[in-house]
Specification:
The chain is an all-alpha fold. The protein is built from nine helices and no strands.
Length: 254
């Protein structure tokens, strides 16, 4: 009888542990979906930035790679209509823009504006699903997700600042929005070093990369460097996402 009870308790423990890990993995997939959405939107804006005289093919390759990753993540999430519908609108508008001629694209920033609205709709839908799982993931993982997310957001905000006719839809804006986001990123970096002391050297490297582009973010109305900003900040988000994946892996084995 005692052995049978122990077996049942062990079985229940394994079931609950499996469910908990499934929630953590789903939260990770939702975060990565958002992360790839910001990557796609960033390179879409770089590709259509009128300050860049030469259209680099690598920009389209980058946002199309992000879109392909989003497609894979949607399948992992079982294609919920709340995410699939805004994603289809997002990618459909991008294809519409791509079909415009080189000359036409300079007169169709209205399409870019619609794309950014579609991106915000998708991001908010993913954020809502993530919020429903927030109580089931650890503080470390949540902090890594937030640091990655805000790094993506300040980068996209920077790219968006180069367009006078395109609105910002993914966050609430204000006169000091860059300063507020910068302070949040800086403070969370210190918190992450406390939460994950074993990662302090890697987090110090992220600080160095962020500090290199930080003055440009805070003085975003002049001397724009869209490609350089994307290079440094997206490298940071990639590292943070790798750290988050490792936290998910550890949650499965613990």
């Amino acid at each position: 009888m005692k052995n049978h009870l122990k077996y049942l308790l062990l079985l229940l423990f394994l079931v609950f542990a499996g469910q908990a890990h499934a929630s953590v993995q789903q939260a990770q997939n939702l975060h990565e979906l958002r992360s790839e959405g910001y990557r796609a939107a960033t390179f879409l804006l770089i590709d259509n930035n009128l300050y860049e005289r030469v259209r680099e093919p690598g920009n389209r390759e980058a946002y199309n790679a992000a879109l392909a990753n989003m497609e894979k993540l949607l399948r992992l999430l079982d294609n919920p209509s709340e995410l699939r519908v805004p994603y289809n609108e997002f990618i459909g508008l991008i294809r519409e823009l791509e079909n415009q001629t080189q000359e036409e694209a300079h007169y169709h920033l209205a399409t870019v504006n619609r794309i950014m609205m579609a991106h915000a709709s998708l991001d908010k839908a993913a954020a809502a699903q993530y919020s429903a799982l927030a109580g089931e993931i650890g503080e470390n993982l949540h902090a890594l997700h937030q640091q990655s997310l805000e790094t993506s957001q300040i980068l996209l905000l920077y790219q968006n600042s180069m367009f006078s006719s395109i609105g910002v839809y993914f966050i609430e804006t204000g006169e000091s929005v860059f300063q507020t986001m910068d302070a949040s990123i800086t403070q969370r970096s210190a918190a992450l070093k406390s939460l994950l002391p074993e990662l302090s050297p890697a987090l110090d490297d992220l600080d160095k990369q962020y500090s290199f582009i930080q003055p440009r973010l805070l003085n975003h109305r002049s001397d724009w460097v869209p490609t350089i900003a994307a290079f440094y900040l997206l490298r940071n988000t990639e590292t943070l996402n790798d750290m988050a994946r490792e936290q998910v892996r550890q949650s499965k084995t613990s």
